[in-house]
Design goal:
Length: 304
């Protein structure tokens, strides 16, 4: 039996679902791709290979296991990209939330049915059909719940808009102890440097009181100010547009002191170490070509 428990992004990790790359399907048809960075690499002939993806996910798995974390994996579905487990479910407090994700990805939820079956029914919440959100847009931080979203007409206009206003209201109604801080994201279906696919592509809390942020990823400066006012400007690590494009905010915390980060994030990793963090460097640049990184690949179930 699994008793889910997530209060924030950095509590000591005990149990996590890790995405699967056993048979991720290779280069998809361009018409089926719904993020601009994947499109860019398909057109450039630089989309990740099965061999590279397997190698890099194996490295992430070893880095997590080093800290005694129990890893669960989805059932393999041949030819299906199952790398980004974050979006297909998430835990808030003691509740596992099953969202409505884009139609093309719903088989990924079926692949974790055996994991969901281990969670007591009273600890599972399923979103109704018109309520839309994905785990990458949902960031719990103790009493606060940060949600990245798109209002109309953006939600219907952009394929990369994944969380709507109905999603915010649903979470407010069901998690009344949380102070919801909703922020609108900039979206682009064509330019990955102008697109915040999910909130965790431009923002992520670390440690006990700090956060990594890309200021220009928010649609309005007033939404960025919500982040600045909450954490304090002195506790923010700002990243550039190019660092955002490389997914610098999408690192993954094992604990308040240990962070898994990409080997190539030289500037960020130096800052993190100077702040006293242990940084586990993992080569994961091929995965980032699909507009996701470490947080996107992990679905924490239990943190202390």
């Amino acid at each position: 039996m699994i008793r889910p428990n997530i209060k924030n992004e950095t509590g000591q990790l005990r149990k996590v679902v890790l995405g699967l790359a056993t048979d991720f399907g290779g280069v998809p048809p361009l018409a089926e791709v719904n993020d601009p960075k994947s499109k860019e690499h398909i057109l450039n002939g630089s989309f990740p290979t099965q061999k590279k993806v397997l190698q890099q996910m194996s490295s992430l798995k070893k880095a997590i296991q080093k800290y005694g974390v129990e890893i669960l994996e989805p059932d393999n579905i041949k030819g299906l990209n199952q790398i980004f487990a974050r979006d297909i479910g998430f835990v808030l407090e003691e509740i596992f939330v099953v969202p409505n994700i884009t139609l093309g990805r719903r088989k990924e939820v079926e692949a974790i049915a055996s994991i969901i079956a281990q969670i007591p029914a009273e600890n599972i919440l399923r979103a109704p059909e018109k309520v839309r959100f994905e785990g990458g847009d949902i960031i719990p931080w103790n009493e606060a719940l940060f949600i990245g979203y798109s209002k109309q007409p953006d939600f219907d206009k952009y394929v990369v808009s994944r969380t709507n206003e109905a999603g915010i209201e649903f979470l407010k109604e069901n998690f009344t102890n949380c102070k919801v801080i909703a922020v609108e994201l900039k979206k682009s279906d064509e330019n990955p440097r102008q697109n915040a696919l999910h909130l965790d592509c431009i923002f992520q809390p670390i440690g006990t009181n700090k956060a990594i942020v890309f200021k220009d990823g928010f649609k309005y400066e007033s939404d960025y100010k919500k982040i600045e006012n909450y954490f304090g400007s002195e506790n923010l690590i700002h990243i550039s547009r190019e660092e955002m494009y490389e997914m610098n905010s999408n690192i993954f915390s094992i604990s308040p002191k240990v962070i898994i980060s990409e080997k190539s994030f030289t500037r960020l990793n130096k800052i993190l170490r100077e702040l006293g963090f242990t940084v586990e460097e993992v080569e994961y640049d091929e995965i980032s070509k699909m507009e996701g990184l470490f947080r996107c690949s992990t679905l924490p179930l239990v943190r202390e």
